[in-house]
Design goal:
Elements (H helix, E strand, L loop, with lengths): L2 H11 L6 H4 L9 H14 L3 E5 L3 H10 L6 E6 L2 H10 L6 E5 L2 E6 L2 E6 L2 H4 L9 E4 L4 H4 L3 H5 L9 E5 L4 H14 L3 E6 L5 E6 L12 H42 L1 H13 L1
Helix pairs in contact: 1-3, 3-4, 10-11
Bound molecules: S-adenosylmethionine.
């Protein structure tokens, strides 16, 4: 979809009618009316879709109404809170084509940079051939965890046409996420920004499989690792700190093994011989 088509859908969505029972569920923690209108008009324009969303809630309830009865559509919904996810599952219980993933906030590493984001186990449960038509990023909590990392976790399920909708895109953490995606995928990232309440961005990555190997600077990597540790300490105390050390050690080892496979095999053989 090109720039003009996205802008047309956004303009048209102004007059999209959101059902009253969906409107009555809008709160400060859900998508706002303008964002829901855009999603409604987007589905109207592109038809049954494979939908991925980060942050379940009203968006799930709304898209399930539009897509839930269509056997050609499927919704994947990820949430860090089992409490809120259970509420959403209950509200959507009559729809069969939704897969919910409970993914508590955990350390995650991408290209050496550390994040606190959704536990990435869910991503391996998505069948290999699945490519998303739409990805809605409305979680995790932007100011606390940022919204950059989820896109890395599902990068193998993106296609050049995937429409990525980032809610609250006018805020600083979301702006930073966009800037970093641009460093990872360079000029293959196109962004349409619609200022509204907290802003909405529509992003496409034209060659999602081609990413920079080392997009982040050393100091930034170190800062991210330190930041994750600090937050883990604040949220979980010493056990979390220990966990983060184990995580760091394991993922560094895996990285080294990836870069120097032969050297690693030789060391292993040498240790076995001794
Ligand atoms: C920005 S909200 C958005 C969730 C969803 N996309 C929506 O439109 O409602 C992010 C998080 O709030 C939590 N949440 C869901 N429903 C909630 C509610 N009724 N009150 C407070 N938080 C809620 C969920 O854990 C969710 O991941």
């Amino acid at each position: 979809m090109n720039k003009e088509q996205i802008a047309q859908i956004y303009a048209r969505s102004e007059s999209y009618i959101i059902p009253q029972d969906v409107q009555s569920r809008i709160t400060g923690s859900t998508l706002d009316l303008r964002a829901l209108k855009f999603l409604g008009a987007l589905i109207e324009a592109i038809g049954p879709v494979t939908w991925m969303e980060f942050g379940s809630g009203l968006s799930t309830f709304f898209t399930a109404r539009l897509l839930g009865a269509d056997s050609n559509a499927h919704i994947y919904s990820v949430d860090h809170s089992d409490y809120y996810m259970a509420q959403t599952q209950n509200a959507c219980r009559e729809h069969k084509n939704i897969t919910f993933f409970y993914a508590p906030i955990s350390p995650y590493r991408h290209k050496l940079k550390s994040f606190l984001t959704y536990k990435s186990d869910y991503a391996v449960k998505i069948p290999d051939g699945v490519k998303f038509d739409v990805v809605l990023i409305d979680g995790p909590l932007g100011f606390r965890y940022g919204r950059e990392a989820p896109l890395y976790q599902i990068a193998s399920h993106l296609k050049p046409e995937t429409i990525i909708v980032l809610d609250d895109a006018g805020r600083e953490p979301e702006q930073r996420a966009i800037a970093n995606w641009r460093r990872v995928w360079r000029d293959k990232v196109s962004v349409e920004f619609f200022p509204g309440h907290k802003g909405l961005a529509v992003i496409q990555i034209h060659e999602p499989a081609i990413a920079q190997s080392f997009p982040f600077h050393g100091s930034e990597i170190w800062k991210s690792w330190y930041g994750v540790q600090e937050r883990l300490e604040a949220e979980g105390g010493k056990i979390a700190l220990l966990y983060s050390f184990i995580f760091f050690f394991r993922s560094t080892l895996e990285r080294v093994r990836g870069i120097f496979p032969t050297l690693f095999k030789k060391i292993k053989k040498y240790i076995r011989l001794k």
